[in-house]
Q: What sequence folds into this?
């Protein structure tokens, strides 16, 4: 079984590629990545050490993609993954996330490959998510997607729709997973994306942070999923594709792994023994949401999968990785 991972030098893609290699999932693992994300070169080195080839190709370049060998599976982890960036860099988000999926689908149709697509919890309507601040119910796949959801969320939901079209016409077997917040080693956090990584890095290095929006008190809540649980789920999806396919599912850390920014700070302070200055910015971004926690019922039922790594373990794991790679990471995380 041959597998291509797009965005293979990113946080999720690189961990997945090495997990596949270590667990003998597939006879050949390749990556496609243009190395545009800060830190992706470090992941490229990890792939090289594991004898995984990366094709340095832009996902918008179909001519180059078409020439790649045939794969049994394409795992699409390539994206401009930051919600806030999608406000300012619309063209980049639209091209990478939507045209990119379109190109990957054309390649799947040509080669009769199966597709594993990493979608996002941000496909859901912002106005409806805002209403959950008080009643705090878990978000399942049937939650509203009809309203505005950020350009990033739009690009992901539109990609899902494109997948349905191609699957219908070309009989492509696919699984779409709408992941919530993922965290773990080799995540290069920045203000716009990768909050657990950013939070821990700033604590380790005694740098400032901001609580932005919703009163500026760090009250936003997210559920966090460890990257190793993502790798296990995607492996199950690949192994079971002939029996289980053409589905859209949510997957996240769930209620046990839900944490507010304020509590993330407390845990980071405890682990690092550092207390840093956190300023307050009251203006809320149009794209921010106060609360998101995944309902994992469907994914649990279908795959008998559940998140194994607890929130404390996830944060400790981040700390250990950062400490043992502190020198090199200084160039890539601010
Ligand atoms: N990290 C999360 O918390 C999270 C949550 C939900 C969904 N996702 C989805 O999972 C996938 C992986 O996310 P990630 O966190 O690993 O992101 P990442 O930014 O770490 O990785 C994306 C990779 O894609 C590459 N890339 C970007 N534009 C490209 C282009 N035009 N051509 C070729 N390569 C390009 C980047 O260099 C990078 O290595 C994305 O589809 C993202 O939307 C991530």
A:
């Amino acid at each position: 079984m041959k597998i291509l991972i797009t965005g293979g030098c990113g946080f999720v893609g690189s961990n997945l590629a090495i997990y596949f290699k270590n667990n003998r999932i597939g006879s050949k693992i390749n990556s496609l990545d243009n190395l545009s994300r800060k830190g992706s070169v470090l992941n490229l080195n990890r792939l090289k050490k594991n004898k995984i080839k990366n094709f340095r190709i832009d996902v918008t370049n179909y001519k180059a993609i078409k020439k790649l060998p045939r794969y049994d599976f394409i795992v699409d982890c390539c994206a401009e993954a930051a919600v806030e960036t999608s406000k300012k860099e619309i063209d980049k988000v639209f091209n990478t996330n939507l045209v990119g999926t379109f190109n990957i689908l054309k390649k799947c149709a040509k080669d009769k490959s199966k597709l594993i697509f990493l979608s996002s919890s941000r496909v859901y309507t912002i106005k409806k998510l805002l209403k959950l601040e008080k009643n705090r119910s878990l978000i399942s796949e049937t939650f509203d997607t009809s309203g505005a959801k950020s350009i990033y969320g739009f690009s992901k939901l539109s990609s899902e729709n494109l997948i349905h079209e191609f699957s219908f016409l070309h009989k492509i077997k696919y699984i779409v997973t709408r992941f919530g917040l993922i965290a773990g080693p080799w995540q290069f956090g920045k203000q716009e994306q990768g909050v657990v990584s950013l939070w821990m890095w700033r604590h380790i290095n005694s740098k400032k942070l901001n609580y932005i929006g919703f009163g500026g008190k760090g009250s936003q809540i997210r559920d966090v999923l460890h990257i190793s649980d993502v790798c296990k789920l995607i492996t199950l999806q690949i192994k079971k594709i002939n029996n289980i396919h053409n589905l859209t599912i949510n997957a996240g850390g769930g209620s046990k792994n839900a944490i507010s920014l304020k509590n993330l700070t407390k845990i980071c302070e405890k682990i690092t023994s550092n207390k840093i200055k956190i300023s307050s910015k009251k203006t809320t971004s149009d794209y921010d949401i106060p609360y998101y926690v995944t309902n994992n019922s469907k994914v649990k039922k279908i795959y008998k999968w559940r998140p194994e790594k607890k929130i404390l373990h996830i944060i400790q794991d981040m700390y250990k990785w950062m400490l043992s790679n502190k020198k090199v990471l200084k160039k890539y995380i601010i």
The pocket of nicotinamide-adenine-dinucleotide is lined by residues 7, 9-13, 33-37, 40, 58-60, 77-81, 96, 118, 120, 179, 181-182 (CB under 6 Å). The mean pLDDT is 97. The radius of gyration is 19 Å.
